[in-house]
Amino acid sequence: MTTAPTASLDAIFAALADPTRRAILTxxxxxxxAVTDVAEPFQMSLAxxxxxxxxxxxxxxxxxxxxxxxKWCKLEPLSMEGAIxxxxxxGQFEPLDLDAFERFLEVELRDxxxxxxxxxxxxxx
Length: 125
What we know:
Elements: H1 3-16, H2 19-30, E1 33-34, H3 35-39, H4 46-58, E2 62-67, E3 70-75, H5 81-88, H6 98-114
Antiparallel strand pairs: 1-3, 2-3
Helix pairs in contact: 1-4
């Protein structure tokens, strides 16, 4: 993987890690919003909301545009494609039962140690 996609994935996941920023993204699913409207449901300063919006914009998750005196925020859903693809790549594997795997290893290692032979890395069928 190259550095640029990793950096953007890091920025996207860092932005999504905060519940306030996730709530803002959910609000922007409905429509573009003015910064003051984004800030309204939160009990924090406009400066704090602006910091959250800057992080979202830096990650490419939203864009901001000044229309007259009002700054508007718009969701950029296509910017999540890289992160979605990365997450979905893990869906190709079958779920692993780690408890069953641990029990298997305990039995195998115990049997090998009791039999005075070194543990087999590749058991013969």
